[in-house]
Structure formats: C-alpha cells, structure tokens
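Known limitations

Files may contain more than one protein. Parsers should not assume a single record per file. Below, a two-record file is shown to illustrate correct handling: read the sequence, read the token line, then continue until end of file.
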Amino acid sequence: MTDPDLKFVLVAAAALVDGDGRVLIAQRPAGKPMAGLWEFPGGKVEPGERPEETVIRELAEELGIDVSEACLAPLTFASHLYEDFYLLMPVFVCRRWQGTVSPLEGQALKWVFPARLTDYPMPPADEPLIPLLRDLL
C-alpha cells in the first residue's frame, strides 16, 4: 500500500505532432528537478483547472502557441510512483495550433520522429509513452 502522506501531483501534457509526424520534446532546464531530461510540454494542473485548460495554458506560457480545446485529443495517461511523490498525467495529442513554437522559458526544444524518442533520456513517467507514440503516429 502506498503511504497515505505521499504527495499527489496531477500534471497534464501534450504530444505536439507536426506535419512531418515528429513530436516536440522539451529539455528540463538547469535548476529544476530532473534537469537535463526530455519531456512532453505541459505542467501542473492548478486548483479548479481541467487538464485540457492546463495544457492550453502551459503551451501558451512555455511555447507561445495558442491551442483550441477542440484540437486536443485524449491519448493516454501516465501513472508513476516517484520516491517522494505520486504523479498522474493525462496526455493529449495535438496536431493543430496557432503561432510558432518558441522556447519561452529557456528550454531546449527538439522535433523528433517517434522511433527516435528513445535516444533522449526522459523522466520515468514519460518513458512508457514512447512505444505508444511510436505505434500510433
């Protein structure tokens, strides 16, 4: 049984897919937990916020793009027990947005074909998403 005092963290993320079938990943900047690892853009769900709203907000803040909720398709979720918290992460796929993807928070960005995602070290919660993306995209 999991420790009842363990912190629960709800985050939401998006697999942005470009016209060539590549997926956007972002590198966690220095000074953040798991710095240097690559992940799908997204962030913590704020109180009173739905995961779709979180993804829309985070993509605007982190990447400078506007996404309509209608362009977010539920894909899967990640569930992972880290040493000091439990993470639950709904993941959406998004193929349409307005604006140009830009690294607004100093993070490195890469467009990667799904078959090459294993070339980039990712947080443990993100790793199980790779085969799914590779098989579906």
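...continuing to the second record:
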Amino acid sequence: MRKFEKSVKLNNVCYDIRGPVMDEANRMAAAGEKVLKLNIGNPAPFGFRAPDALIDILKSNLTETEGYSDSHGILSAREAIIKYDESKGIMGVRPDDIYTGNGVSELITLSLQGLLDYGDEVLVPAPDYPLWTASVTLAGGTAVHYICDESADWYPDVKDIERKITPRTKGIVIINPNNPTGALYPKELLQEIVKLAEKYDLIIYADEIYDRLVMDGKKHTSIASLAPDCLCITFNGLSKSHLIAGYRVGWMTISGDKSNAKGYIEGINLLSTMRLCSNVPAQSLIAPALSMLDDTDKLIQPGGRVYEQREFIYNAINAIPGLSVTKPEAAFYCFPKIDIEKFNIHDDEKFALDLLRQKHILFTHGGGFHWEEPDHFRIVYLPEISVLKEATDQMADFMKTYRQAD
C-alpha cells in the first residue's frame, strides 16, 4: 500500500509555538490536567473582549456582507486603511495598493510566494516570529537570520544585516514592535535600515501588527514613512489592538517606489484573486475599528490591564535567581534569558517540557523563534496579575532545584 508522506517542501518548515511542547500540553489537558498556556498571544481566553460597539456593527453588517468582495477588499475598508497609513506618514497609497487578508499570516505567505524563486534569500530577525521563516522556506527561499542584540535593547544589529546581504537577497523583514521581545525601534535605527535597503535594492517587509500597543508614552514609527524610494510592504490588522484574533482581520499596504515591481505586483494580484477574497463580515469592521482606538489606549496606560501586567511580569521574572529580562515596550510578550551555566541547560525545548510536566506552565522555548542559543524563552503576559503571580511563583520554585542532566 502506498504511503502518503508530507511534502518535501515542509522539511525545513517549523512552527514551534504550536509544536511538540504544545502537543504535550494538549495531551496533559486531555487527561484532565490543568495547564496554564502562556505560549500564544490570544487575548480571548484571558478575559479580554472586543468593544461592544464593534460587535454590534458586525452583527448589523452580516446580511450586507454575504457575498464575495473585490479580491483586494471592500472599498470602505481600504479607504480607511489609506487614512490610517497617512496618519503614520505613509503617503501616496491608492486603494489598489491595499489587500485585506484572513489575518496578517495569510498575507505574509502570499507576499513571499509571489516573489521568491528557489535560492532567493530574505533577511529575517533572530529571534523572529516563526511564521516569517516558515513562509520564506515554503515559498522556496532561504531565510537568513540577522541578530537582534539583547545588550542593545534587542535592536537589530545593522552591521550584521549588511554582512549577510548577498546577490540573492531580495528583502528584509522588520518586526516592529517586535515579537517575541517587545522591543520598539527608534527612528534613527529604522533610517539606517532604510539606507541599506536603498543601497542593495531590497524590499522592506514591515510587520507592524502591534503598532497600537506601545507603552510608556513612546511613539511607533512606521519604516515605510521613512522609505519613499524603497518598495515597502507593511502588514497590520485588528487581531491584537481590537482583541478580535479569531475574526482574522488583517491587511497589507504596498508603498514607495513600485517602478521595478510590476511583475511582482502582478503575482500578488494573481494569488489574491485565487483565494477570491478575505472574510467580508470581518472586513466591514476595519473602517469603524480604525476610528475606535480609545479602548485600546486604556489598556496600555498606567492602571490598564496590559500595562500593569507588563510591569508585574518584568519585575517578577527579574526577581527569580538565574533569570533576567529586558523590559518590553510594546505588545504582549517578554523574552527572558536563562543562566544556562547555573542550570546546565543545553536543550531549551527540554527545559520547556520539564517545566510543563512539573508545574503545568506552557511557554515557547527560544529555539521556536530561531534563537540559536538554548538560553531564552517567551512568556505571554496576557493573564491577570493573580494568575501571573501564581505562574512566576511556581517558576521560581522550579528553578530552585532544576538542573539538566549532561
């Protein structure tokens, strides 16, 4: 009997956020064991709810959004995105430069499939959001990881980026605000990256899904606003800022110099048309949501849930001997460092599994974000402080005696 194996195209594709450690957590949960899942930035399980007014709009639009839309998306949504882009300094965008998607994930994959031939390279940060590396690989390209430097607030190392550019390099991915580190990149750094993109004719892929979740009074700068002479593709959506991850509402904007990208844009149009359109009821939320940002702002101000939970996790992790963490400036995540000599850690996935089995706490090991050393992990700080306290107390107890066998 013939066996049906997975495609060889998937041989180097991984997504450990939902990988083997998650599989073990699901097995434990199926056996009746309680597991605290701190591995995925999904607000709903932790009691976050979308604004009531937004849900009411969705309900009222259902009978008007039963058919397919234009493959780019409904016009009112794209016009609202143009206004939002202009507010971020991204100018010259037309409705046909915007594509709505079933979340940003779909559009990342689509944009790379439309560009890459076998052997082409894309610069991707390390640590990364692993979908980027997986999508580059699945499209036939090679993800080349540049270093983000923990000692420099997790900013990209511009010299390392330039060292890794080759004649096969077609683009560079910038995740800002960053997942998994929570770093926010300053304008001056982004300008340096733009200079490299101009010098080497690179496409800039800007993942900015967390741009409305920036704390401490800081301001997010969209790299596309600094790069009118580069081809930029900027990704954004409502999943995080409006707490509707399950509705899958994302978009991408093509801006800058498109003069040498006619063929590429034709490819994107083809792929966009092949999937007909994104979820139309969800698209109908884009315009009202982008005029409804006050609820999001409350979460990230002192006294707001996200802000206070960020403060707690930062202090609690740094209070555990052998752990340290750089304070995140945005999003829902932090990326703590482990003193691997103290705990003899040589396998970060095993570390994650051991903590899961002993303390029933699930997080993603650093290798799941293409971080090469076994000395980091990502925690999602969406649970309420009482839950985070229980988790960090259990973690502190675990670390008192933990040591990996040689």
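Parsers that stop after the first record will miss the second one. For reference, the second record is described as follows. The mean pLDDT is 94.
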